[in-house]
Amino acid sequence: MLKSISYTFKKKEAMKYSKYTPVDPDFFDILESTVHKNEEQNIFFFLPDNSLGQAKGKFKHLPKNSEGEFITLKNGEFVRLDRIITINGKPGPAFDEYDNYANECLSCKAGYEE
């Protein structure tokens, strides 16, 4: 089930992510082309418990601190960059992880024997 991030990410102390993974510099090109249009952003991402989250709002800035790099929206929500699956339909740094997660059951036998 998809969760809204409002309850978690407006309070920074609620975040308990694993170690930050640096983002490919090419992703910043995607961000530049996407976020600076002053349009509503639609971001799907992994929450700290690896469930899916969604954030919507207009871009504010890209802060960086000891916990990693983030995209901050004007409504106060923020998402760590390395956990973004898609932003406005464009793949983010965690897209491959999501794709593997989504296809995981395709390799199982689902109760069937060979």
Please compute the radius of gyration using only Cα atoms. 15 Å
Spell the H/E element sequence.
Answer: EHHEEEEEEEH
Q: Classify the helix fraction into a percent range.
A: 10-25%
CATH topology: SH3 type barrels
Low-confidence stretches: 1-14
**Secondary structure category:** alpha+beta
Supply the number of helical segments: 3
Shape category: globular
Largest sheet: 8 strands, mixed
Quick check: average pLDDT? 78
CATH class category label: Mainly Beta
The CATH architecture category equals Roll
Q: How much of the sequence is in beta strands? A: 25-35%
Subunit arrangement of the protein: single chain
| β-strand number | 8
Roughly how many Å apart are the termini? 32 Å
How many domains make up the 3D coordinates? 1
Task: Detail the topology: elements first, then pairings.
Elements (H helix, E strand, L loop, with lengths): L2 E2 L1 H4 L15 H11 L4 E7 L5 E10 L2 E2 L2 E6 L4 E3 L3 E4 L2 E2 L3 H9 L11
Parallel strand pairs: 1-3
Antiparallel strand pairs: 2-3, 2-7, 3-5, 4-5, 5-6, 7-8
Summarize the entry for a quick read.
The chain is α+β, with helices and mostly antiparallel strands. The chain has helices spanning 6-9, 25-35, 95-103, and strands at residues 3-4, 40-46, 52-61, 64-65, 68-73, 78-80, 84-87, 90-91. Strands 1, 2, 3, 4, 5, 6, 7 and 8 form an eight-stranded mixed β-sheet that branches.
Describe the overall structure.
There is one protein chain. This protein has 114 residues and is an alpha+beta fold. The chain has one domain: SH3 type barrels. Helix content is 21%, strand content 32%. It contains three helices and eight strands; from the N terminus they run E-H-H-E-E-E-E-E-E-E-H. Strands 1, 2, 3, 4, 5, 6, 7 and 8 form an eight-stranded mixed β-sheet that branches. The longest helix has 11 residues. The radius of gyration is 15 Å and the shape is globular.
